[in-house]
């Protein structure tokens, strides 16, 4: 596997934590916010690892994947477990799980599950948008028997899967599996949801953690992620770190035409330390407008714009994904 530059990761983590400390907002006034607004604010405290692939992943890889972290980033007190209560054979009810049996086993294993919900009941009683909304807001974490995990998007809908905050995490609940180990692993994991595009994000840290802990989580997460990526690291175009409201800082990046060495980098000065941020912003926008006048195909010939000091990380302000450019070229043809 291509080695990740640990110093690059350390710089990105430290820069993000420093930025968050200087730009913290709303968190001192949570009492004045609604429950939904409070959740939004607290979610802003998570550090996300953004994965960009070279190609859209095959459909069979888009199921959620657990990525183990060295340092847990959140705890849960309200958990719903969705079980597969469908009979394995027609008219054979003895082969299916039932709520009472599952609850007894969870209690004997001292696994803190708040609600056990049958898959058949979920399908029958949570059809309306309002019912799904109530269910969504009732629990902090959803677990699901992996035998029904691929059926849940059609049952739960966009409420659960659009923002990916409460996507049910698949667990192995077969008789011979270790239920306690399976479920406890979720508490120290983050969820990777490869989507229908080339970009995915997952939580790897949160504001308030030690930078060294976040760094270890990032490196461990990258190692876990590439196990699910076609061609492993060869299928990855970039990894970035970010808060939900910050710029994305690169920790690993491969230029799409790096081997051919056909892409050119050019730099020009647009500001300096001590200037007002608005002045620099106006310079940047004007510079971009002027630059594209000299570029073949205008903005269509640009792969990316970044901002940086000579000794800093480069912050992405515009980036055209490779598959986007390929689609544009195909349409033109």
Descriptive notes:
With 333 residues, this protein is α/β, with parallel strands linked by helices. The chain is built from 11 helices and 12 strands. A 4-stranded antiparallel beta sheet has the order 8-1-9-10. Strands 4-3-5-6 form a 4-stranded parallel beta sheet. A hairpin with a 5-residue loop joins strand 9 (236-243) and strand 10. Mean pLDDT is 83; it is low at 258-262 and 323-333.
Helical fraction: 25-40%
From the N-terminal CA to the C-terminal CA, the straight-line distance is 37 Å
| Proportion of strand residues | 15-25%
The gyration radius over C-alpha positions equals 23 Å
Order of helices and strands: HHEEEHEHHEHHEHEEHEEHEEH
Give me the number of helical elements. Answer: 11
Question: Mind describing the biggest β-sheet?
Answer: 4 strands, antiparallel
Strand order of the largest sheet: 8-1-9-10
Mean pLDDT: 83
| Contiguous uncertain segments of 5+ residues | 258-262, 323-333
Function: Regulates cellular senescence through inhibition of PTEN translation. Acts as a pro-apoptotic regulator in response to DNA damage.
GO molecular function: RNA binding
Subcellular location: Nucleus, Nucleolus
Family: Belongs to the universal ribosomal protein uL1 family. Highly divergent.
């Amino acid at each position: 596997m291509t080695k990740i530059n640990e110093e690059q990761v350390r710089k990105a983590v430290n820069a993000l934590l420093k930025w968050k400390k200087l730009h913290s907002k709303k968190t001192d006034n949570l009492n004045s916010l609604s429950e939904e607004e409070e959740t939004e604010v607290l979610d802003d405290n998570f550090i996300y690892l953004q994965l960009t692939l070279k190609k859209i992943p095959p459909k069979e890889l888009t199921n959620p994947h657990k990525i183990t972290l060295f340092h847990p980033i959140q705890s849960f007190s309200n958990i719903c477990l969705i079980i597969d209560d469908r009979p394995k054979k027609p008219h054979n009810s003895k082969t299916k799980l039932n709520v009472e049996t599952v609850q007894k086993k969870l209690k004997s294993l001292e696994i803190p599950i708040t609600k056990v919900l049958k898959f058949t009941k979920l399908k029958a009683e949570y059809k309306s948008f309002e019912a799904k909304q109530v269910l969504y807001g009732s629990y902090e974490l959803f677990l699901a028997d992996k035998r029904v995990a691929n059926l849940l998007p059609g049952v739960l809908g966009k409420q659960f899967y659009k923002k990916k905050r409460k996507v049910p995490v698949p667990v192995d609940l077969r008789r011979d599996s270790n239920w306690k180990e399976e479920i406890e692993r979720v508490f120290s994991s983050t969820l990777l949801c490869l989507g229908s595009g080339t970009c995915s994000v997952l939580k790897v840290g949160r504001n308030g953690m030690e930078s060294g802990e976040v760094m270890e989580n990032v490196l461990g997460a990258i190692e876990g992620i590439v196990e699910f990526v076609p061609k492993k690291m060869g299928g990855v175009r970039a990894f970035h770190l970010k808060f939900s409201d910050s710029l994305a800082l690169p920790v690993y990046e491969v230029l799409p035409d790096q081997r051919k060495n056909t892409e050119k980098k050019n730099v020009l000065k647009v500001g300096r330390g001590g200037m007002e941020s608005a002045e620099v912003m106006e310079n940047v926008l004007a510079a971009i407008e002027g630059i594209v006048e000299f570029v073949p195909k205008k903005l269509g010939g640009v792969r990316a714009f970044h901002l940086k000091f000579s000794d800093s990380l480069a912050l992405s302000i515009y980036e055209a994904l490779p598959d986007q450019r390929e689609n544009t070229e195909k349409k033109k043809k």
